[in-house]
Design a protein that fits this description.
The protein has about 325 residues and is α/β, with parallel strands linked by helices. It folds into two domains: about 5-170 and about 210-235, Rossmann fold (3-Layer(aba) Sandwich), CATH 3.40.50.720; about 175-205 and about 240-275 and about 290-310, UDP-galactose 4-epimerase, domain 1 (Alpha-Beta Complex), CATH 3.90.25.10. Helices cover about 40% and strands about 15% of the residues. Helix 5 links the parallel strand 5 and strand 6 (about 160-165). Helix 1 (about 10-25) crosses helix 7 and helix 4 (about 85-105) packs parallel to helix 5 (about 140-155). The longest helix has 20 residues, at about 140-155. The protein starts with a strand and ends in a 13-residue tail after the last helix. The mean pLDDT is about 95. The structure holds nicotinamide-adenine-dinucleotide and uridine-diphosphate-N-acetylglucosamine (UD1). Nicotinamide-adenine-dinucleotide binds near residues 8, 32, 33, 35 and 37. Uridine-diphosphate-N-acetylglucosamine binds near residues 76, 115, 168, 183 and 207.
């Protein structure tokens, strides 16, 4: 059994990862500032260090006697990165550097969350890991920065790393309460309560929606694959869904005819994001992620369990 530091362990993906690590008998320490995460997401058995990931001393202390680090703490919204450029850079890039710096003295392996946002708009789909990286957002630029610093960490300091380029992750515990929340959490929350959803632009933009269980499987396997070569792998399904058809599938799952309003398109938005999952599938031994509809039904079932009467949402998180 090993001890793992999970930064961002009180967030959506981090909480699922912590549950999986604890199930396997590992010791889990979480570093989180609870800015978009919640203490209610801290898995029983995990300990919490409430601190900012961009504070090198706090991260160094949290990494003491740990065997590995999963670095997930970040401002996960592409749009928030547009609005608060320096602030998101501090968390998303300086935070990653603080983690790598803390890993330096004992060469602690680091598995970290990168993003499909590093690719920008790709001419050829699906996007393989060899595609050029041309981010269109500050968020994507910072994630690419994390990958470059991970390469330096391996080449210069001998720190093993592996970066996972998550596409659009969804599942239970994703917070629907902010305009910066993931589209699936917003659509499921609204349509189950028969409220209208807003589509930014014409809704023809497509995303590769990957269930959180697949992401956790990739994270767990990635710790064994971390190396000084600083590999990066896609975590995706290879199946495209337009935002317009997402609204209609969520409507079917919720048993309602969706009311859809159209707003202006978002700034710096990627039009089509579709990943090639084959390399990661082989390297990490991933199985089929299951259907989008089944995953959406799981999200709606979770929301109904948290709030059976389908009134106002009760999930309380500050975002
Ligand atoms: P989330 O917002 O639910 O989790 C992020 C966690 O990091 C939260 O608990 C938050 O409190 C914490 N955090 C934020 N700033 C911090 C700081 N300065 N110091 C310490 N903790 C801080 O988001 P998520 O969807 O679980 O994302 C997890 C990781 O995966 C992020 O790195 C994100 O960029 C990446 N990612 C997410 C997606 C997705 O679709 N959700 C896709 C690609 C990459
Ligand atoms: C998401 C992730 C980001 C990740 C990236 C990788 C979140 C909040 N963001 O960004 O961390 O790096 O995937 O691909 O999880 N939309 C609407 N109406 C809404 C909300 C969204 O039409 O109410 C549209 C957006 O305009 C966009 C699509 O849905 O076209 C997805 O948006 P969003 O869930 O915010 O994710 P991304 O910006 O793709």
């Amino acid at each position: 059994m090993a001890g793992y530091l999970v930064t961002g362990g009180c967030g959506f993906i981090g909480s699922h990862l912590c549950a999986a690590l604890l199930d396997r008998g590992h010791t889990v320490r979480v570093l989180d500032d609870l800015s978009t995460g919640s203490e209610s997401n801290l898995m029983p058995g995990a300990t919490l260090v409430c601190a900012d990931v961009s504070e090198p001393a706090a991260v160094r202390e949290a990494m003491e006697d740990m065997d590995g680090c999963f670095h997930l703490a970040a401002i996960a919204s592409v749009q928030r990165g547009m609005l608060d450029w320096p602030g998101t850079n501090r968390t998303n890039l300086a935070g990653a550097i603080a983690v790598l710096d803390a890993a330096r003295s004992r060469r602690v392996p680091v598995v970290y969350a990168s993003s499909a946002a590093v690719y920008g708009d790709c001419a050829s789909l699906p996007i393989s890991e060899d595609a050029p990286t041309r981010p269109l957002s500050a968020y994507g630029a910072d994630k690419l920065g994390c990958e470059l610093h991970a390469r330096v960490a391996g080449a210069v300091h001998g720190i093993p790393t592996l970066g996972l380029r998550f596409f659009n992750v969804f599942g239970p515990r994703q917070n629907p309460l902010s305009p910066y929340s993931g589209v699936i959490s917003i659509f499921c929350d609204r349509l189950r309560r028969d409220e209208a959803v807003t589509i930014h632009g014409d809704g023809g933009q497509t995303r590769d929606f990957v269930p959180v269980a697949q992401v956790v499987a990739a994270l767990l396997a990635a710790m064994r694959g971390a190396s000084v070569e600083a590999p990066v792998l896609n975590v995706c399904t290879g199946r495209p869904t337009s935002v317009l058809s997402l609204a209609s599938i969520v409507g079917e799952v919720c048993g309602t005819r969706p009311k859809v309003e159209h707003g202006p398109p978002r700034l710096g938005e990627i039009r089509h994001s579709l990943g090639d999952p084959r390399r990661a599938g082989m390297a990490l031994g991933l199985s089929d992620p299951g259907s989008l509809r089944d995953g959406l039904a799981e999200v709606v079932a979770w929301m109904d369990a948290v709030q059976p009467d389908r009134g106002r949402p009760v999930i309380s998180q500050t975002v």
